[in-house]
């Protein structure tokens, strides 16, 4: 058997995440971080500024760090990515923990403003000629094991009796962009944030509303009489599931047997007359317990645009926002609360929403002619983010060498050529 020896590499080879470097360069070309320079939080800036700490949090999100402790492993060793942001190296988790714990309500307003401006300047949905569909939904975040500010008992699937928070979200499924967000204690009902979601959505899409080109889609939690009236007042189109299952059952009594239209063997729909100015679609289906159950949809979308069956399928395409929540929890790691402070949790979530829109923009622009455009965020971060690349610093540029280990790596390099793989970093070299 051959002997094995170990020695230090005298060439000082540096490794980096090609995924992170490419995304930071994309962000820098957009002047993405300029808006963060005015973030105001009282914390000493000895080695790092508030901007540096925000940049680190964004980098941790796009790298799929599930805990702040992951920063030490995934970011701190990556000096190439740090230098692109004007730092010699990323701050460690202790700096970030202290930073998040000092967030207050003013900082939440600042981050909401940054999200709004980035959306208004770059959102693909705003330039869409097709109807823009915005989904409203709420998802719970369990806070267990510690004392968390403002955490309350609420409805958390499979986590009965736990305390936590409720995350209300508006999301454009077709483009994969976040529109708005609110965080509340766990005992908050989704309907209490409906008006806020509606205002923030119609503000961003006011031109689409005026052109009858915005559709809001929401589940039964938002289907109260009061919320329907709010929707009607905006002038936007909408499809909302009715709040009362008892009302659904009563409506179904007026449907004749021959009026039911078959979706499949277990689901039938029928449209019934209405004097409210809205269309009512009743749905009959077999529940998990094997019993016949009913629900109903309320909409102001005309029958010439969608018939009852089309509306049924259209409503069920709400799964895009449910997939987004899964991405937030499984990829961005929001289920692992970064701090016990309410505003720190809230601020981190705003950074997730901002960072998600940045990734989505890169995927749909820089990768627009590549197969990577069709990849989900989950695959991009979990697969591309794990590829370690070699850094070679030459006189006038820096080469990021990605090992040709997979078809995905080859697609990544092809997508980035020629702008992003062979990088010219004059300013970057001067910060070293």
Keywords:
432 residues; alpha+beta; 10-stranded mixed sheet; 16 helices; 14 strands; globular; Tnp_DDE_dom; RNaseH-like_sf; Transposase DDE domain-containing protein; transmembrane
Based on DSSP secondary structure assignment, what is the total number of beta strands? 14
Radius of gyration, in angstroms, nearest whole number: 25 Å
As a percent range, the share of strand residues is: 15-25%
Q: How many DSSP helices?
A: 16
Mean of residue pLDDT values: 89
Span between N and C termini? 44 Å
Overall geometric form:
globular
Helix residue percentage: 25-40%
Which structural category fits the helices and strands?
Answer: alpha+beta
What's the order of the H and E elements?
A: EHHHHHHEEEEHHEHEHEEEEHHHHEEHEH
State the major sheet: 10 strands, mixed
Q: pLDDT below 50 for ≥5 consecutive residues: which ranges?
A: 420-432
Protein name: Transposase DDE domain-containing protein
Keywords: Membrane, Transmembrane, Transmembrane helix
Domain Transposase DDE: 42-416
Transmembrane segments: 343-362
């Amino acid at each position: 058997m051959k002997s094995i020896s170990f020695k230090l590499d005298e060439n000082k080879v540096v490794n980096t995440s090609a995924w992170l470097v490419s995304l930071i360069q994309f962000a820098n070309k957009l002047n993405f971080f300029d808006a963060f320079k005015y973030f105001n939080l009282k914390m000493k800036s000895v080695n790092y500024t508030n901007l540096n700490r925000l940049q680190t949090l964004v980098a941790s999100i796009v790298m799929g760090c599930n805990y702040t402790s992951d920063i030490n492993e995934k970011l701190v060793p990556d000096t190439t990515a740090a230098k692109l942001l004007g730092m010699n190296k990323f701050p460690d988790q202790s700096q970030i923990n202290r930073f998040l714990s000092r967030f207050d309500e003013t900082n939440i307003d600042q981050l909401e403003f940054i999200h709004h401006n980035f959306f208004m300047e770059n959102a693909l949905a705003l330039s869409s000629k097709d109807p823009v569909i915005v989904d409203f939904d709420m998802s719970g975040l369990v806070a267990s094991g510690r004392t968390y500010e403002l955490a309350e008992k609420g409805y958390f699937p499979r986590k009965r009796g736990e305390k936590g928070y409720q995350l209300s979200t508006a999301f454009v499924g077709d483009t994969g962009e976040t529109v708005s967000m609110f965080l509340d204690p766990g005992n908050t009902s989704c309907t209490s944030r409906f008006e806020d979601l509606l205002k923030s959505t119609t503000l961003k899409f006011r031109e689409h509303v005026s052109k009858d080109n915005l559709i809001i889609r929401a589940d039964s939690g938002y289907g109260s009489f009061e919320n329907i009236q709010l929707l009607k007042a905006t002038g936007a189109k909408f499809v909302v599931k009715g709040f009362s299952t008892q009302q659904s059952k009563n409506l179904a009594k007026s449907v004749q047997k021959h009026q039911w239209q078959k979706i499949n063997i277990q689901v039938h729909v029928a449209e019934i007359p209405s004097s409210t100015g809205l269309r009512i679609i009743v749905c009959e289906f077999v529940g998990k317990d094997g019993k016949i159950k009913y629900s109903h949809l309320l909409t102001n979308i005309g029958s010439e645009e969608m018939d009852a069956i089309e509306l049924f399928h259209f409503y069920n395409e709400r799964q895009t926002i449910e997939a987004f929540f899964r991405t937030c929890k499984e990829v961005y790691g929001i289920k692992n609360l970064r701090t016990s402070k309410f505003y720190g949790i809230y601020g981190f979530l705003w950074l997730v929403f901002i960072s998600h829109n940045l990734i989505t923009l890169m995927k749909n622009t820089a990768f627009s002619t590549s197969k990577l455009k069709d990849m989900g965020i989950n695959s991009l971060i979990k697969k591309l983010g794990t590829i370690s690349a070699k850094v070679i610093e030459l006189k006038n540029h820096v080469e990021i060498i990605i090992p040709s280990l997979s078809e995905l790596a080859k697609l990544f390099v092809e997508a980035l050529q020629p702008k992003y793989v062979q990088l010219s970093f004059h300013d970057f070299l001067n910060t070293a």
